[in-house]
Write a structure and sequence with these properties.
Layout (H helix, E strand, L loop, with lengths): L1 E6 L3 E2 L5 E9 L1 H5 L3 E7 L3 E8 L5 E3 L7 E6 L4 E6 L8 E7 L3 E2 L3 E5 L2
Length: about 110
Amino acid sequence: QVVLQESGPGLVKPSQTLSLTCTVSGDSGTKDAYYWGWIRQTPGKGLEWMGAISTSGNTYYNPSLKSRTSISRDTSKNLFTLHLYSVTPEDTGVYYCALGITYWGQGTQVTVSS
């Protein structure tokens, strides 16, 4: 069993960078069996996969967000981070970290507003 917890600012100004961290705890074997990724739910697009990082550090991004997204991982600290650049109000929503599609964090609300 694993537990994921997102952390980061709840309010970001337009054009700034949103940075979220996900801390992963639990069974090492389970953690290493999945890609670590980010998913969001926004009023405009619903549930949207943003990207993921493998245990070897390879990254994969949603083509529609690739130019503005970066995911990194600190294996020693069991955490991974999302950076979303040049945010707009359309990026407002609930952001989830996940292991594959099996284990999800509880989600964190992010609002983009001046």
